[in-house]
Design goal:
about 90 residues; alpha+beta
Length: about 90
């Protein structure tokens, strides 16, 4: 596996029940840009830049949102698929 340089911000909109609720109901999305993250979360861009750049936070919980900053992205091949005339691996 190779590691790619880059940053992904994962946004979890938890709702009023917080972390104690059923996570199947949460809205989970990701982006690579603080401007887009600001629009999705409703948190000001300046606040996000301060938290992630100046304070070097990795996890931020603000209001009903939890944001996780992911720095290591491992890229790998997915098993399965067609090789020649036969299928290999798991195909569903």
């Amino acid at each position: 596996m190779k590691s790619k340089d880059g940053v992904i911000y994962v946004l979890v909109c938890m709702g009023p029940e917080g972390l104690g609720g059923d996570m199947g109901e949460y809205l989970i999305t990701s982006c690579t840009n603080l401007y887009v993250l600001s629009k999705l979360s409703g948190i000001k861009y300046d606040r996000l830049a301060y938290l992630f750049s100046r304070l070097k936070k990795v996890v931020v919980i603000e209001g009903d949102n939890m944001i996780i900053k992911v720095k290591s992205i491992y890229v790998g091949r997915q098993e399965g698929g067609k090789r020649g005339k036969d299928y290999s691996g798991f195909n569903r």
